Amino acid sequence: MNLSKYIDHTFLKADGKKEDIDKLISEAKEFDFKTVCINPSFIEYAVEELRDSDVEVCTVIGFPLGAMSTESKIFEARDAVEKGASEVDMVINIGMLKDRNLDYVKSEIKAIKNACKNRVLKVIIETALLTEEEIKLASQAVIDGGGDFVKTSTGFSTRGASVEDVKIIKGVVGNSCMIKASGGIRTHEDMMKMIEAGADRIGASAGKVLLG
Predict the structure, then answer these.
(1) Spatial CA neighbour of 7 closest among 43, 46, 33, 37
(2) Where are the domains of the chain?
(3) φ and ψ at 36, to 5 degrees?
(4) Neighbouring C-beta atoms of residue 96, cutoff 10 Å
(5) pLDDT tens across 168-189, in order?
(6) Is the alpha carbon torsion for 44, 45, 48, 54 positive or negative?
(7) Whole-number Å distance between alpha carbons of 136 and 173
(8) Are 121 and 147 a contacting pair, CB within 8 Å?
(9) Are 33 and 55 in contact, with CB atoms under 8 Å apart?
(10) Cys-Cys crosslink for 35: which of 46, 58, 95, 138, Cβ 3.0 to 4.6 Å?
(11) Prediction pTM value
């Protein structure tokens, strides 16, 4: 098991400076992480800096609330892909999910997957704000909308991922799509518990610590 390739090495703080991204990129190269996960304004810079490595660039759209229009998310997704992002992490419209407007949620995921072309789309459902039933509904919506991953959290809500969240999602998605656990994963033990529960990817700012 190559643990380094489970990790999206992440820096998404609003006050992030170039030196923060440089540090993230340097660590990602050193430890051979799967991606750096960064805000969209740094995509082109990160792509250039990682050109001679096999570390990819992941970015976020509709982040962190997910409550903007579908059209604005589509624009963000297209822009991210044009600038060189290999993977896109989008936030669903959580209010629409809670209103049981599942057609809206599914069609938005589908539209953004289209905009991403052949890139990987991870769909953030923000489990901290959902009941168990809503986690299940959201996970099914990701499958129906063609998302490649269900992602637990933005890391900016009331809590991050839990092992129980991952187990609930896995019970719905099976092998239909993958799972990214993110938010609050700070130790090697935390990461291994998430992987054992069914996570295929880990989003964390403490990537090098997770390797143990």
Answers:
(1) 33
(2) 3-210
(3) -100, 135
(4) 18
(5) 999 999 999 999 999 999 999 9
(6) negative
(7) 9
(8) yes
(9) yes
(10) 58
(11) 0.97
Domain 3-210: give its CATH code.
3.20.20.70
Rounded to 10 degrees, the C-alpha dihedral 40/44/48/49 comes to -30
- HEC readout, 142-184: HHHHCCCEEECCCCCCCCCCCHHHHHHHHHHHCCCCEEEEECC
CA 104 to chain centre: 20
Mean pLDDT to the nearest integer, 84-113: 98
Taking the C-alpha atoms of residue 207 and residue 33, their distance in angstroms, rounded to an integer, is 8
Rg of the chain over Cα atoms, rounded to whole angstroms, equals 16
- Residues in contact with 131: Cβ distance below 8 Å, sequence separation at least 6, in sequence order: none
pLDDT at 212 over 90: no
Residues 6+ apart with CB under 8 A from 100: 137
What was the pLDDT predicted at 1? 79
> DSSP of 130-143, one letter per residue?
--HHHHHHHHHHHH
**46: Cα within 13 Å, side-chain hemisphere:** 36
Percent of the chain with pLDDT over 90: 98
Residue 5 identity: K
E strand spans, the chain = 7-11, 35-38, 56-61, 87-91, 120-124, 149-151, 178-182, 201-204
Mean pLDDT, residues 101-109 taken together: 98
